[in-house]
């Protein structure tokens, strides 16, 4: 581990590890199978204060920094990636409200972030990140904004109660608004039938003449793309932590199995071909972990972290799939079985190349950044 | 009504897998940080629930070296209000009697305490003596190995005490000393917010000068018992017979043996 | 100097002397040399439990009869013990390391200002010194403890550590003491006692035990084990992790901080064999263990070992004994 945790961070890490071992680890496969978090777990997550982890203390949170939040996401993801994914969606949204909302809006909504899930919504059925394709919009009427449209593929859609939504305020500009599910005209839509991260719902919302006051605008008019990008960067540190967590999970399963399973009276861990796979998984895990931890350190130090965070997610997204695939191979027939936890690791890990910016989009971003660095 | 509760806690080694130095015959203590004695978490949880119900204040009390601070902070992070660490070279080497004496003097100094809670025993020394010793020194009622608590109006509490083959319902009035079984509750986790706040709280550190203690009753001097020697017990391995083949084959082989020994 | 005495506190639950008391009498007689073995019995006026105790042949039984002793609290008993101790100055006082023993003994210890060693696994005398062997750190370490300068020397002993032996033709003297001051405890009273028909007592005394560990936490395996237990007339015990299962509690636990079992037949299912567990089964006669892990330490304690699946084994077993 390349990071030094402070004393409160060590205690947090111990608490999260205990919690996750006791409450999450035993139901990892159940969460995948039931496509939901048991209510009991959800209650424990909320009551133990996980939602307010990075929220400043003045709003009732714990005020932990990105090093601590990414460590927490990692510790959870080692036991179940989906619960980590749900918290990731919440944390990055809360971060944007904290950064861009007016003091009044923060005063009103941030204390709720300790017990209500926040979700970030940008994608539309007709277009991903392409602003031109978007139709959902916000129109100013007097001192109110009237919001209309349909948004999809929202992490925690349906589970979240408060949303940051990117809406068109003119043909070429997006702005970000905070919307509450309690507002008249707000409706949840269907949940996507995804192949992995099964505890986390990904769903859609409908806005039908939802009226919000002016202070529900985050940042300035037209700042939506920037806020969306910023949310991605914050998310990618945590997505890197999820990738490292899945990879560690795969490593543990593979090692335990290889030590125990014998072929011709020898544990298969002594076979070179198995050792190679385990080594590959271990190297991948270390690499992903170093990347997301570096990004977290940069963020805590107030430096630019977008590039490294994006590297953590783009590398981690692929490495974790490969790692889980190696683990599957080590377990052979059991790895391919639904009764063993490896196959769902592949399905879970596969999400990381798509959510919070596709692999392709990230590649473009990293290459641009790399080229820019060399032109300066 | 509000309660002033003291919870006595102890820091224990992370693992009980200790080794003995073959030459000095002393315990080799790993450099690893200790953890809170698991039963003490049940005692803290019991205190927190009483506080939730009746209001009041919970003070953690521990005796040991400075690094016990980490365990007291964990207790604060679970939601306790204050912490006192009894730490001094003079307290070192104390057995249960000397420990119980110093704790009881500290409880007297804290003052106006309604209830003192202990975990049923520590997982390292496994004595379960200190709770009753403290209640004797305070001359308070004790209810040990409690699995349930119901507080009524005023300062009357009904406890269920689990014995090996019976249970007792015991009614008592405060102030009193209780030792808590694991069955009593599921301890809450420290919340992230409380973890942060626990590091902003002061832990009071008291030594023999802060307490009114008889110097002959503390530390090694105040301890009647002496550890003459320690060793790691050698377990003789049985010569086990492995049953081979499928489960069915193994069982057939086993049954022959069991029948031969008249065990079925 | 008067004859030296080893005292044993007679523990009774709902009117029955607990086996540990008899075990202590037998052990005390074995190590006493010329010391007298004296049992201290507190009972209600309508009881004559001294008759049961006599069968184990202590030199003397001191009986205190008082109806308030039916449900006396820890501190009341500790007070009476302290008074008696002051009168006769015993060399040592022994208790069972039971809930009651572990509650009264330290209270008495504090009153007398002497040493007490809890949960001993062996006792011996070296002249007048009681050598007390006590496990520590979850039975990973043994300590030999003495109390050189204070009397009485006090110890509590883990139940089922020693075997009890009845003696024929005993010459036990029964001494009734009826001039003790019964100081009624203020602010605490036992309002109800209910025998637990369950489990823990029966595991500790069961002849056949099926023990389940982490590797047998699957509901299917548990129900198979229950069925087999019914068929064999065995009791189910568990390791610590399974006490969190809704079907079990700490009362069913075997091992350190649980029960010590002494069955004729013990079947360990899915138990890895940490020291904390194995100290609780050492006195079993025949041990069979089933575990997936060929390196599980449990096999070192077993007479018969099967490396394989618990479910298959239990199903196979049930099939055969149908």
Automatic annotation (TrEMBL), chain A:
Annotated coiled-coil segments of the chain: none
InterPro entries attached to this UniProt entry: Acyl-CoA_Oxase/DH_mid-dom (IPR006091), Acyl-CoA_Oxase/DH_mid-dom_sf (IPR046373), AcylCo_DH-like_C (IPR036250), AcylCo_DH/oxidase_C (IPR009075), AcylCoA_DH/ox_N (IPR013786), AcylCoA_DH/ox_N_sf (IPR037069), AcylCoA_DH/oxidase_NM_dom_sf (IPR009100)
GO MF annotations, alphabetized: acyl-CoA dehydrogenase activity; flavin adenine dinucleotide binding
Domain Acyl-CoA oxidase/dehydrogenase middle: 120-210
Span of domain Acyl-CoA dehydrogenase/oxidase N-terminal: 7-113
Domain Acyl-CoA dehydrogenase/oxidase C-terminal: 223-369
Cofactor(s) for this UniProt protein: FAD
SUPFAM superfamilies: Acyl-CoA dehydrogenase C-terminal domain-like, Acyl-CoA dehydrogenase NM domain-like
Keyword terms, alphabetized: FAD, Flavoprotein, Oxidoreductase
Pfam families membership: Acyl-CoA_dh_1 (PF00441), Acyl-CoA_dh_M (PF02770), Acyl-CoA_dh_N (PF02771)
The keyword Oxidoreductase is assigned to this record: yes
Family membership noted in the UniProt record: Belongs to the acyl-CoA dehydrogenase family.
Protein name (record): Acyl-CoA dehydrogenase
Biological classification of the source: Bacteria, Bacillati, Bacillota, Bacilli, Lactobacillales
From TrEMBL, chain B:
GO molecular function, one term: electron transfer activity
Top-rank lineage group of the source organism: Bacteria
All residue ranges annotated as the Electron transfer flavoprotein alpha/beta-subunit N-terminal domain in the record: 24-215
UniProt cross-references to Pfam families, sorted A to Z: ETF
InterPro entries attached to this UniProt entry: ETF_a/b_N, ETF_b, ETF_beta_N, Rossmann-like_a/b/a_fold
SUPFAM superfamilies: Adenine nucleotide alpha hydrolases-like
Protein's name in the database: Electron transfer flavoprotein small subunit
Provenance organism: Marinilactibacillus piezotolerans
Lineage: Bacteria, Bacillati, Bacillota, Bacilli, Lactobacillales
UniProtKB/TrEMBL annotation, chain C:
Residue span, Electron transfer flavoprotein alpha/beta-subunit N-terminal domain: 6-186
GO molecular function: electron transfer activity; flavin adenine dinucleotide binding
UniProt GO BP: fatty acid beta-oxidation using acyl-CoA dehydrogenase
Keyword Flavoprotein: yes
A Pfam family annotated for this UniProt entry: ETF_alpha
Keywords: FAD, Flavoprotein
The keyword Flavoprotein appears for this protein: yes
Binding-site residues, FAD: 214, 239-240, 253-257, 291
Cofactor details (free text): Binds 1 FAD per dimer.
Cofactor: FAD
Source domain of life: Bacteria
UniProt record similarity statement: Belongs to the ETF alpha-subunit/FixB family.
The name this protein goes by in its record: Electron transfer flavoprotein alpha subunit apoprotein
Organism of derivation: Marinilactibacillus piezotolerans
